Amino acid sequence: MPFAPGMSDNRPSHASWSPDLSIGVRQFKHFLLRKRSGFLLALGTACLLCAAPARASELPIRVEGVEGPIAENVVNHVRTAWALGHSLSTERRRASFLEQARHRAQAAMRPWGYYQADIQANLQADEGDSAWRLEITIDPGPPVLVEHADIQVMGEGADQPGLRQWLERWPLEPGTRLDQTIWSSQKDQALDLARAGGFLNADFTARRIALDLNANRAQLELILQTGQRAVMGRIEYEQDTVLPHVLRPIARFGPGDPYRATLVEELRLDLWRTGFFGDIEVLEQKHLEREPPVVDFRVRLSPRNRVTHQFSVGYGTDTRFRTQYHWTRHLLSERGDSMRLGAGWRQRDSELQATGEYRLPRRTNSLQFWLANGILRRETQEFVLKDDNDQEVLRIAKGEIFDTQLRLGRLRLHNNPWSNRRIQSTVFVDLLRERDNFNQALNEAAPQPAGDFLDDLFGNTDHTVAVGVDLDWPVIRGSGFMTTGHHERAWALTANEAWGSEKNFSQVYLSSRWNRLLGHRWKILLRGEVGWSDADLKPFYVSGEDGASTLLVTELPYRYSFKAGGSQSVRGYAYNDLNSNGIGSNHLLTGSAELEFLALEHWSVAAFFDIGNAFNHWSDPRLKRGAGIGIRWYSTLGAVRLDAAQGLDIPGKPWEIYLTIGTPLL
Fold it and tell me: 430 near 465, Cβ under 8 Å?
């Protein structure tokens, strides 16, 4: 007896003895009902549920005529019919299954606007094969096109930037194919945008697709009513770790402020950044019936481990090998005070340092801390003589510099509407004790006038008292290659004998870094910094093989003098090599432009040009140029950057290699 049209005459070798599973299921259920056994009924049901996916996977399905998500949807719809209990043991069952497969395939085409698709379904079994396979051939036919789209946003939220942009970018314009997957995603996106912006009662007053299948045309109507914007309510903290006044200023909002979902997430992150808490649960209590709607918050907090240890080992061309250890006591008492101690070493300049920081929250309505920072540092430096091209001609002396620095101040964190990172401002007093021992002469250089040159220039212990303000403004978004934003740093300070300083000077510094995407694969990075110091210069006359030379040495403490060169400054020159004499200069000016191209998913290439110098006279800055190329690998640990650069103002234009890890915005 021939099979129904579209069926193959080749039956599987086991078809003659294969049992009719659907009959067996009915008999099994009848047996269970007769026995009235709840346990057996549950067991039988579980067996049926477990059997369905296994049987669904036994039928390979191949779709021709469409591909991508449409073909995947067809396969999923047809497999659902197979899993619901079809058996192919008889011709009648095969015909019934093919008819259902055609109907389900047609239904699967409709969300993409194909309502008149021609579906052919066939069952095949290869020679020697023990299982059927289903072949579906689809002619999509003419699609339904959008004839008219009435898309509106009404209410208080109509002017919200996100919803305006959603409305302007509505994709189902007249003449486009009706795609109900896009229709659904656009509805969800509109509601998400409205509710994230605080319009928690937002809903559609009209959502309609009118179809004319004779003309293959569709009329769309979608009207979103945002309603009133919700406001922030009270915050109730459930914790016994710190005093209430410590948590009061952490939230970036107050009662009555417009509701934004991002503010809720920032509250959770800011509580985590305190270091006091391990588990943080923020529960929203929405009162949508009020006018305006109000959202209160119940925050449940549990303490974290009060002590953490951090140890790191690394390498960079600027620092060479380096290692650091930090011990942090996140909570000394219920007042919220904390302490951090650390020690570090780097191969460059044989630098050793020990650090300590103590923070105590202030009792204010804004997020403020009393701050005490201490640093003990020792490093090796060389004092050199340079020619008019800033090239080293004479190494005069080598020695060590010892610093003891204490900064006392008030740190304030300001809300930043452009970023989840707060702006930091610190008003401070710096107490610096600096001692040097440049007593290892590297050349026999006799100064004029006569006298002990090194003893006159170095071998002193200076005490500096400086007052100033420090600002840090980061705006960073995204990750990997898609990281964008800007980062500004600035400080101004002055030291004077009037308040006990042995040195008189003033200094101002400003830097800015910008990352901007140019499409999806290009990015531009701009960087610039400028520093100015009002400090005296000491002239010294050094005799050498080519006669006497004048050497100007700034009276700035070594810790405040400017240097340039290196991976974060002017590439093509060694780290901190650009300055007047090896120990620093009064002024600084650098700039950089870099163009980056994303070549592979996590790899990019870059080309850059840098310029700058550290100098003592604005009339003669002698800016140095560097240019080169680089490779970037965006790993899970951060961006790994390998650069090769030429110093264009060095005779012979030698190459320098730089290896750094981390975003250039930080």
Answer: yes
CA dist 234 and 218 (Å) reads 48
In what side-by-side order are the strands of the sheet with 133-139? 61-64, 133-139, 118-124
Q: What's the pLDDT at 235?
A: 96
Find the mean pLDDT for residues 164-172: 95
DSSP 568: T
Q: Which residues pair with 611 in a beta bridge?
A: 591, 625
Single-letter amino acid, residue 432 = L
Domain covering 231-303, topology:
Ubiquitin-like (UB roll) (3.10.20)
- DSSP reduced 3-state for 164: helix
Separation CA 101–CA 318 (nearest Å): 67
pLDDT value of position 421: 87
Q: Give me the pLDDT at residue 123, please.
A: 87
Give the right CATH number for 381-393+442-452+467-661 from 2.40.160.50, 1.10.260.30, 1.10.1200.10, 3.10.620.30.
2.40.160.50
Residue 213 is encoded by which pair of tokens?
A: 């299948």
Q: Which residues contact residue 505 at a Cβ distance below 8 angstroms, ignoring those fewer than 6 apart?
A: 494, 495, 533, 534, 535, 536, 555, 556, 560
Indicate the CATH number for domain 145-225.
3.10.20.310
Which of 234-238, 343-347, 442-446, 576-580 shows the lowest per-residue confidence on average (mean pLDDT)? 442-446
E strand residue ranges, 75-169:
118-124, 133-139, 145-154
In order, the DSSP letters of 124-139 are E--TT--S-EEEEEEE
The strand pairing partners of 659, in sequence order, are 642
Range of weakest confidence among 49-53, 136-140, 348-352, 422-426: 49-53
**How do residues 202-247 score in pLDDT, each as one tens digit?**
999 999 999 999 999 999 999 999 999 999 999 999 999 999 999 9
Averaged pLDDT score across all residues of the chain:
85
Query: How much is the pTM?
Result: 0.77
In percent, the amount of the chain with pLDDT more than 90 equals 66
Cα–Cα distance between 596 and 490 in angstroms, integer? 27
The C-alpha atoms of residue 381 and residue 563 are separated, in whole angstroms, by 13
Torsion of CA 573, 574, 579, 582, to 10 degrees: -150
**Hey, where are the domains in the chain?**
21-139, 145-225, 231-303, 381-393+442-452+467-661
